[in-house]
Amino acid sequence: MASMGRKSKNSVRSELVASETNFVVSIRGFDETSAQTVHARHTFAAQDVRPGHEFVDIHSLDEDGMRHIDYAKIHDTRPIASPPASSS
Question: What's the domain count of the chain?
């Protein structure tokens, strides 16, 4: 009964695409080099949604402790592990 009412990932995706829903993501940050607030905004269509996925890390530390951001991975995702089923 734990799965009763749960929809499959494909079902959720199909419903989103059929609804023609759009998602607007807005990010604000501070650029220390120019001492200015920077803004980014992107609209995603429903068919861009990947249920059961998460974004990969785009930042890393090298052996000298320098931080790096790999913008080539900005749209990369990976499947997430399913949460363990509750025992209740």
Answer: 2
